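WARN retry 2 of 3 for item q-0093 after timeout on previous attempt; input resubmitted unchanged.
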Amino acid sequence: MRVARSFLWALALAAAFVYVTSTGHWSAARLLGPFRPAAGSWSEPAAAAPAYTTDEQNNIDVYRTASEATVNITSVVYQQDFFFQVYPVEGAGSGFIINADGEILTNNHVVRGSRQLTVTLHDKKVYKAKVLDLDQRNDLALLKIEAGHKLPTLPLGNSSALVVGQKVLAIGNPFGFGGTLTTGIVSSLDRSIQTEENRRLEGMIQTDAAINPGNSGGPLLDSRGTVIGINTAIYGAQGNIGIGFATPINRAKAMLEEIQQRGHISRPAPVGIRTRYVSGDLAEMLSLPVEGGLLIESVERGSAAEAAGLQGARQMAVVGGLYQIGIGGDLIMAVDGQKVEGNDTLPAVMSHKRGGDTLTLTIYRGGRTMKVPVHLGEAPQQL
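OK item q-0093 returned
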């Protein structure tokens, strides 16, 4: 009886062994292999598409389109060392294509002084570039490459419609890392900044989108992928700290329109006056309106100011026993209807003028105010 039972157990085990080795259905054997969860379990199937938020998808869509029309710009400038040996220095910046024939917008400071310019496209092809025109006052430059085929472009938006808080995206070549995307918001509008060349840039867009050296000239885009600014400057010298500045795209559109109409960028000749800002107690001491303005101390011969009949100082006065002021001249209280609030008011208005434009000055003379039109000449071209 015991022998029969042992024989039956051995037969059952042998049958089970044959079943497992032929089918692999014994669960204990499956644990030794790689774990592959069954369909419908907690693990995502390998072929499933990742889910993005609406904002993430917008970033992806804008980048896919805009990066194809964003370029890297390499400039070569020759400098002289301590031993008077000339050597090349390479710089890098960004830009973007605005028409299919290869015209590119960037910053003037990206190409300034360069003897050789090359542009690298999204597909890594490299082309020599030439400068078509410069707008130094607004730090803008227009370049051209000959690619031999139509190129992808970026649409230009409307920077006048911007509001603080709206999303923006920046694409460029920071520290030589091409095709970099950063995002942020419009932090403020109508900022004024001083450049390294002591130029003042007015009406700038402030953003917290990361902008670093090499981003200059690249596009600042809205969530629709249209260019609303040109990345231009950062606050401080060490890199991004969340305060970057972009030139409004409407300023570049005005430049492009002028090039189309005139064939070049025109700059107004200087007004031809030397002024001093006075207000408050000082203005009152000089028998001028307390709100003050720009007191004209001298008028240059042959200038637009002289032609307009503006008058300079008739005598000198010592103020506080410390310094002299020319008095008796016209007091400019407003420029094109904009109240004078400091020495920057006139240069700010002039930055938007072209040769042949008229500047309207509201002046105080002899106890009454009057408006004087000043017809601006055109300054020599600078390229």
